Amino acid sequence: MGLEVKEDNTMPKGRAKYFKLSVMFLLLNINSFVVPVGGFSLRSCRISYNTAICAKSKPSLKAVPTDIPPTVKGLDLSVNRITKIQGSDFKNLPLLTQLEIDRNMISQIDTGAFAHLISLKRLNLNNNKLHELTADLFDGLRNLTELRIRSNGIQVVASTSFKSLTSLNLLDISFNKLNHLTNVHTIIQHLPNLKDLSIYGNGFTTFNSWELTNSSLGLTSLDVSQNPFGVFNITTNIFPSLTRFNIGGFHSKQHMKWEVRNTTFPSRVSTLDISGLELAFGHMKTFLERVNSSLTSMRMNAMKYNLTALINISCTIPTMSTLQLRRNKLHFIHSNFFKLCINVKELDLAESRIKNIHDEAFASMQSLKILTLSRNLLHSVPAATKYIPTLEELDLSKNNITTLECQDFANMTKLKHLRLFNNYISALKDCVFKDLIKLQVLKLQGNHICTFGGAFKKPNLPNLTQLRLNGNRLTTIKSGSFNGLQSLQILSLHENKIVTLKHGCFIGLTDLTDLQLQSNNIIGPDIKQEVFNHLTNLRKLDLRTNHIRFNESLLPNPPFSKLSHLQILAIPGQHHRGKALMPSNILQGLTNLSVFNIRNNQLLSLPKDMFNHTPQLQKLDISSNEIMDLSPELFFPIQNLKSLYISRTNLRSLDFLIDAGLTKLEFMQARKNAYSVISKDVMDTLKALVYVDFQGNSFTCDCDNAWFINWIENSNRTQVFDAYNFECNYPPDLKGMKLLDFDIQPCTVSTEFICFVSTTCMVLLFMGGSFIYHFLRWQLTYAYYFLLALLFDSKNQNRQTGNLYDAFISYNTHDEPWVIQELLPKLEGEQGWRLCLHHRDFKPGKPIIDNITDAIYASRKTICVISRRYLESEWCSREIQVASFRLFDERKDVLILVFLEEIPTYEMSPYYRMRKLLKRQTYLSWPQDQEQTKVFWEKLRKALRAEENLCEDRLLLNVMD
């Protein structure tokens, strides 16, 4: 994601374009800014601008990676050691539009390997080892428009290799070993939309038009250069649409045999390159005469013979406008050299070893606008250039020019671009640019300029927008040095030896947007408000790599406080010794600052309120300092921050990010610091993060990093660059091991396993409960009450209470009428027994279970009056259980069961069945026949009178006997 800089409406026309270019340059120069798509960790690649970049991997890839995300639109696998493309390598990349696999060692491609790349438009297979193109090799690439397969050593091409490429526009199959033009016919016969074909350097010795019949009618560009043609024969018009033709570039010992009988070839060619072509002059003349009505651009570089004659022929073509004559060893340009080139607008004479030029060499070129004389041997500006009144661009770079005279550019009133860089100019005279009133770009970098005097003080260059003075020997910028450059937008002064910036040195540069002062010797005292306060429209200021340092924590006059439009600021990486101090108000006034670079300044800390004046900051680089800790408060004023560089800062933790509130942060580079654990809280806080770089940190391989390892492998939000190469530094026995090879299984609890165990237990519990309820519910009920009786008896087992009653009557309230009307009168009234009844003898307010226990243990016997209602009663069950436990505990027969009704065995409670096993004979049934009641009462009396010893014989009490 590039940093978007909005155009200010106050900018003069044309300034925005230059400013945007400079912004892009700084963003690239400060650091490579990678913006990914998606979020994941790749073993050998990174994601940038929808492109997976796996180029120049270390170690080099030997196969196509399998972890490329399916959302990418570009894949760069260049400069690796891949030897084979397999059928499944690109199976999951349906959105891919560009594939770069050049500079590998590919010798084999499986059939159908590209079949799934239905969206692919550009494929680059240059510089591999594909000696043979097999049948249906490019099957499926119906949308491919560009194919480059140069320098592979291709010798054999199957007839159906290219049949699927129906949309192909450009094919470059140069520098192979096709040797014969029939191989080209095999290729292009299946390409109906082919427009641009390059087959140079294939060892063709003959070119016969019939070998390409009906296969090249749509070509507009053809490059057959650097082939050792002995015969060039065209008898039919096989190139009716050709507009660009390159046939030069091969040196042989004998001239080519030229037989072009078709008069229409090359009648439509507008750009012709015959560089290095060795052809008989008569044939060359005939050839050039046939492009008389269409040719606009002619290249005759490195020609050995007849150059002057060829120039004269070319210049007679009325449409000729561009002439390129590089590398021709001209040495001297005489007055008649370009006498016929009256229509030429652009002339390129670079790299031609030119030492001298006749003053009238260009006098006849009254239409010339662009003249290139770079990379020659000129010692001064040739006077011939003064006689070209139409000249708009002049390139004199990389010559041996040492001085510039006042008349060198006289009368060049239309000149817009002047390139004088990389010469030996040491000084500029005040009058040297006096006539260049339309000059826009002046490049003087890479010279030996120590002073430029008053060359820019006067308004001689009212339209100059770019001035490049970098790479010279300037030491001082004096006051008013650029007074006359009212339209200047870009000023490059970097890589000089500037020590001093005088007050007012930039006065007059009210339109300046880009000022480059990096890599000089500027000292701290020169960075004052008075130096920059005139640059009211400045957008970019680069002061890196100077001797600037601050000794105050608070500056009385912040140097940039007047630069309210400044968007990009880079403060130097120090050359001085010792630690640096950053004043808290250094950024005061920079309300629109979006990029701040303060790397390599030997800073120990940053003031917490440093960014209070920069609410628009989006990119911050504080790398290569000695800041061991950062406060979250530092980031409170810059909540729009999107990119953060904190590499090599000795940070021991990233916990400051938890409370920093950087919810918009998308990119973070945090290489080579001192932290060993990345916490979950840190990464959860950075909700917008899509790319992070933790290279070179000393990670701990233990459970503290288990979350981080799992997050790297499974995150679908953030890409962790080069994560598969992170190494363990602790514990010592794991040092050097890859972080992602550490087994985190013992550190984690599997949620899936817990759910499985829980579900299994619930199912088993439900099944067990169902089984118990159906088959064992009565046994469990008995066990419950037995334990309850044991609990109650434990309170009374040491109790020595005397027998207050002869019997405790246990009954259900529904059977109370029988107890009151029948039992009570008979036992108490007639027989004189002392009975205990709960409604009469229980103590009020006392717990009912205690009343029951006390009554049973205070009675010699317990009479249970049993009916169906009795068996259903909870309290009756507890009473019989306490009495039963007393029977077990004291080994006394204290329990008498009286049944008021007949109850089948299967309806009996487990208590009665237990009693039946222990003492089968002691129970009574109330007779239905009134005549039997006497026997019932008599047996009940005997039971109450009987001793409690279980060892003595018992009477059979059942009246039914």
TrEMBL record:
Transmembrane annotation, as ranges: 21-42, 756-776
Localization per Swiss-Prot or TrEMBL: Membrane
Keyword check for Glycoprotein: yes
Gene3D superfamilies in UniProt: Ribonuclease Inhibitor, Toll/interleukin-1 receptor homology (TIR) domain
Main location: membrane
Domain TIR intervals: 803-944
GO biological process, one term: inflammatory response
Family under the similarity heading: Belongs to the Toll-like receptor family.
Name assigned to this protein: Toll-like receptor 13
